């Protein structure tokens, strides 16, 4: 069960007991599930600001490994002694195995050897997929035999994708500059803007990053921007802009012309857009906080907009490789509330479009309830005014390679195990 860090040993200045105690403390905090895991890890590291890079890596990866395989590790931990969180930290350990042994008592070492020898293939299905029933069942129904390849993919960390800012650089030039910095990057298979990096190299100090030549952005998010296909001189709205990753992609696609509104209910998230916007070189972006989808700022633009992207608030379950805590923090009740919100936001955003304008609805969810169900309900309600558009043709027109492999029926449907992106869904319509 215990993993190892390929790059070498943990910081020898910290006693093994101390690092295992910190892992136990961090897990105790994260397993309350009262806040996102990435935020809790960041707070913990600020509190323990003397930790070295390797120690932080060990602690963070131990947490994320536990979250990915929580049901399995909780089952195995039942047979041990001592605090539960300590047993879980031992089972999920992602630091040097020899370093861990230095922190274990002889009974703990014997117990770890015993549970590590268990053949996982003999365990019940639920302990192998490590998903709650409300999530596992619809995924099995959607995927059939592909369910287990998805499970395997969700157990692995996601690669790091970059989007090249087409306003400032060409992909091949950025790839060459990354190589000179010792970072191997390969072009993404579908997005013409993307580069994929294995591992997590430090990018934030590189001139490529600080000068706005690249942004961290999953290939799936890039494809959403390409699907909207915003043109020079148009009026475009990113309706749920968040921190603005897709906003920046749209602004670059518009070649810094026209007018691009970035709406969101969170002023804090829009504030996070400002430094990214400054790096990007864009001047056509207009961030605006709105109170809700019926805000007066929205109403004033009714019938005036060429293209609208609704990357709706959703469960985020398509990002489980990055945020494995979501499967334990979400619930069927929360999903029902989200579906109602998604339906309301889509209906309101649709009113912005002029005749001939394009509407794209998207989520980073794997579940039909947030995806096909919402899109089909909108078509049923608004079919007289909005014509559904098959996504494949739109992607091909936007020069997306292998578009036929990215769709399910008329929709964009990205799966981590098939496409090595986050899980994404998108539907498109044209205003009649």
CATH topology name of the largest domain:
Rossmann fold
| Rg value | 23 Å
For the terminal residues, how far apart are their CA atoms? 58 Å
CATH architecture of the largest domain: 3-Layer(aba) Sandwich
Strand content: 15-25%
The residue fraction in helices comes out at 40-55%
| Structural class by SSE content | alpha/beta
Classified by CATH, the class of the largest domain is Alpha Beta
Number of DSSP helical runs: 21
Largest sheet data: 9 strands, mixed
Low-pLDDT stretches: 1-12
Relevant terms:
single chain, 432 residues, alpha/beta, Alpha-Beta Plaits, Rossmann fold, nine-stranded mixed sheet, four-stranded antiparallel sheet, 13 strands, 45% helix, globular, disordered N terminus
Structure description:
By secondary structure, the chain is an alpha/beta fold. It folds into 3 domains: 16-130, no CATH class; 160-216, Sun protein, domain 3 (Alpha-Beta Plaits, 2-Layer Sandwich); 219-431, Vaccinia Virus protein VP39 (Rossmann fold, 3-Layer(aba) Sandwich), CATH 3.40.50. 45% of the residues lie in helices and 15% in strands. The chain has 21 helices and 13 strands. The strands form 2 sheets. Strands 5, 6, 7, 8, 9, 10, 11, 12 and 13 form a 9-stranded mixed sheet that branches. The chain has a 4-stranded antiparallel sheet with strand order 2-3-1-4, covered by helices on one side. The longest helix has 19 residues, at 332-350. It is globular, with a radius of gyration of 23 Å. The N and C termini lie far apart (58 Å).
């Amino acid at each position: 069960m215990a993993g190892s860090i390929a790059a070498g040993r943990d910081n020898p200045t910290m006693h093994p007991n101390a690092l295992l105690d910190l892992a136990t403390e961090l897990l105790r905090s994260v397993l309350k599930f009262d806040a996102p895991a990435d935020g809790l890890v960041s707070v913990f590291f600020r509190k323990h600001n003397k930790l070295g890079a390797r120690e932080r890596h060990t602690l963070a990866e131990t947490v994320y490994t536990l979250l990915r395989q929580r049901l399995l590790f909780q089952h195995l931990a039942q047979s041990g002694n001592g605090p539960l969180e300590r047993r879980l930290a031992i089972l999920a350990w992602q630091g040097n195995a020899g370093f861990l042994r230095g922190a274990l008592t002889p009974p703990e070492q014997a117990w770890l050897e015993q549970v590590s020898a268990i053949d996982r293939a003999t365990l019940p299905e639920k302990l192998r997929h490590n998903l709650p029933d409300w999530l596992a069942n619809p995924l099995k129904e959607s995927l059939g035999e592909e369910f287990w390849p998805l499970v395997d993919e969700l157990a692995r960390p996601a690669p790091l994708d970059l989007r090249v800012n087409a306003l400032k650089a060409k992909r091949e030039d950025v790839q060459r500059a990354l190589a000179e910095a010792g970072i191997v990057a390969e072009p993404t298979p579908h997005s013409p803007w993307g580069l994929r990096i294995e591992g997590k190299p430090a990018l934030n100090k590189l001139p490529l990053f600080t000068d706005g030549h690249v942004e961290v952005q999953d290939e799936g998010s890039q494809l959403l921007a390409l699907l909207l296909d915003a043109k020079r001189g148009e009026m475009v709205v990113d309706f749920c802009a968040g921190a603005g990753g897709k906003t920046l992609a749209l602004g670059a696609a518009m070649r810094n012309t026209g007018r691009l509104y970035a709406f969101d209910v969170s002023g804090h998230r829009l504030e996070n857009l400002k430094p990214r916007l400054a790096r990007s070189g864009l001047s056509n972006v207009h961030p605006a906080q709105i109170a809700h989808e019926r805000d007066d700022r929205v109403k004033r633009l009714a019938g005036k907009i060429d293209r609208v992207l609704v990357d709706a608030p959703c469960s985020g379950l398509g990002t489980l490789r990055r945020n494995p805590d979501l499967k334990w923090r979400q619930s069927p009740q929360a999903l029902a509330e989200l579906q109602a919100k998604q339906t309301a936001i889509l209906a309101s955003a649709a009113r912005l479009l002029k005749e001939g304008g394009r509407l794209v609805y998207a989520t980073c969810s794997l579940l039909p309830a947030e995806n096909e169900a919402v899109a089909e309900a909108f078509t049923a309600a608004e079919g007289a005014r909005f014509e559904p558009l098959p996504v494949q043709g739109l992607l091909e027109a936007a020069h997306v390679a292998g578009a036929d492999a990215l769709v399910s029926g008329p929709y964009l449907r990205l799966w981590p195990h098939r496409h090595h992106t986050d899980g994404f869904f998108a539907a498109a319509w044209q205003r009649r």
